[in-house]
Amino acid sequence: MNHARQAPPPPPPPPPAGTTTTPSSPPTGSAATSQQPPGVCTPFSSQSAAFNLSLQSGGTSLPSGSLPSGGTTIPVVSAPPTVSFSLHATNPTAVPLASIIANAPSGPTSPLASTPTAGSIPPSISNAPPLPDISGFNPANYPPLDKMPDVNSPQVQQWKQEVMNSGITIPNIAPTVPGGCPANPEAATDASRCWWTCGGCTRESDIESCPDKLHWGMTYDDGPAFYTTQLLNYLDEQSLKTTFFLVGSRVISFPDIARSEYMSGHQIGVHTWSHPPLTTKTNDEVIAELGWARQAIRDVLGVTPNTMRPPYGDIDDRVRAISLALGMIPVMWTRLSPAVAFDTGDFDIQSGLTSASQVILNWQNILNNATMLDHGFLSLQHDLFQDSVDIATGYLLPDAKARGDITIEPVAMCIKRGLSNSYIETNDNKTFPPPQGDGTVTIPGDLPTATNPSATTIGALNASTTGDGSGGSGDNQGSGAIESFHMSGTIVTLTILAGILANMLTVL
Ligand SMILES: [Zn+2]
C-alpha cells in the first residue's frame, strides 16, 4: 500500500468541549471548516517497513555510554516489538507516550502568546512590508476549503499567464493516476520524468539537504491547526525556529496563527490549497492549488513565499516546472534511498498506523543516519494533529536540544539563504533568486549575467536518484551559483557562474 494514495485522514480533532483557549482568533469561517478532510504528508509504507526492519534486526537502544549523565530512558509501552531507547532529555511536562495514541481524547489547546497586529514588521526581516490589516478578511473570497479550486476562475487564468510568461517550458508529462507507483508502472520506471515518489529522483532545483553536517532544517507541514499554538509556544520558549509549510485552506481557517508563525521568525512556505498529490493533477489544477495557497499566505502575511513542499513529496518534472514558473522552489525532506527517508512518521500516529514510540525510534534512526552524513538534513514533521505536536514538544525537540551537536534551523538558515530571502518581496535576489521573467534567475548588481563571457554553460543536468549509498544527492561542493535555468522536456539546462556564491549550488 502506498500511503500517499490512501483516503484522506480524519479531520483534526476539535478542541475539547468547554475549551476556550483555541487560537486567540477563532477559526475564521465556520468551525466546520476545520472538520474538512485536511491534507497530510504521509510517508511511504516502505519507509516504515524499513524502520521496523531496522528495529527488529538490531534495535536502536543506544549504549548508555553514549549518553550524557542524566539521559532519560523511556520504556516503550504501546508498540510491538517492545524495545527501550534513550533520549538525552524529555520535556518535564511531556504527555506520556502511552497516551499519545490514535483516538486519544483531545487535550486543551493553547492560546497564542499574542495576536500580531496590523502594521507590525517582523523583527527578523527588517525590509518586510507591514503586516496587512485582515480585519475585513473574508473566507468567502477564496475557494471552498480543502477542495480543488475552480480552474476557470479569473485568478487561475492570471496565474496560468504567469506560468506562460515565466519562459519555463512545462514538460508534456501526463498526470499520474491515483494509486501511486503500483498504479503507474510505466511512469514509476520512467526516469526521464524524475518522479520523486517512485525512487526518490531529485533535480538540482530541489532543496533536499543542507550543506553543513548536523545542521537540521526542521519543518512542520499541514498547519496551521488547533495545536500549532502549543508548538509555537514551545519553540518560542526554547528559542527555536522552524519552517512551516502551510496549507492554504488552513491559513484561511487560522490566519492569526499563520501571522504569529511569521512574526515569530519562523519561515513560511507553500503546501498547496487542498493538499492533493500534485502529479495526479492537470497543469491547471497544479497552478490553482499552488496559486491559491500562495495567495492566501500573501493576503495574510503580506509576503509571498518562494518555496513550496509538494504534499506527500509527490513531484515530477512537470510539477517542478510549474512550481518554479510560479516562483516557488521545491523543498523535500532528505531521502537516502527509497526506503530510508528523514520522515519521523509522526502523522501516522493519528491513524493508528504507527505508535509514538515508533516515531521516537524513527527519530533516532534519522539522527543515526545524520551523523554519518557529511552534510545536514531536512526532516518531515506535522502540526495538524495534537499527537504529532505532543511528541515533538515532549520528546524529539528536547532530545535534539540536549544532544548539543545539532544546529536546529529553518530551511532558509540551513541552506544559508536567510529568512528575508524566503519571500519574493524581501529577497535580495542574490542568494535565493526565484525564477523571473523569461525564466532567467535575476542576479542583479555586480554579479555576472548570462551574457557575461565569464559565464560557463554546464549543459544538461542529470537527474540524481538517491539510494546509491553515497549519502544523498545534496552534496555538490562546487562553488558557483545557478544564474539561470530553463526546463524543456526533461532536460534542465543550467548556466553556472564559476566562483560566486559558494555553497549555493548544493541546494538550488
Ligand atoms: Zn502535507
TrEMBL record:
Residues 18-34 have a biased composition (Low complexity). Signal peptide: none annotated. GO terms for cellular component: plasma membrane; side of membrane. Residues 1-45, 108-147 are annotated as: Disordered. Residues 108-127 have a biased composition (Polar residues). Pfam families: Polysacc_deac_1. Its cofactor is Co(2+). It is a lipid-anchor; GPI-anchor. Keywords: Carbohydrate metabolism, Cell membrane, Cell wall, Cell wall biogenesis/degradation, Chitin degradation, Cobalt, Glycoprotein, GPI-anchor, Hydrolase, Lipoprotein, Membrane, Metal-binding, Polysaccharide degradation, Secreted, Signal. Its EC number is 3.5.1.41. The keyword Acetylation does not apply. It catalyses: [(1->4)-N-acetyl-beta-D-glucosaminyl](n) + n H2O = chitosan + n acetate. Residues 214-409 form the NodB homology domain. It is found in: Cell membrane; Secreted, Cell wall. InterPro entries: Glyco_hydro/deAcase_b/a-brl, NODB_dom, Polysacc_deacetylase_ArnD. One of its GO terms (molecular function) is chitin deacetylase activity. Residues 7-17 have a biased composition (Pro residues). One of its GO terms (biological process) is fungal-type cell wall biogenesis. Belongs to the polysaccharide deacetylase family. This is chitin deacetylase. It comes from Agaricus bisporus var. burnettii (strain JB137-S8 / ATCC MYA-4627 / FGSC 10392) (White button mushroom). The lineage of its organism: Eukaryota, Fungi, Dikarya, Basidiomycota, Agaricomycotina.
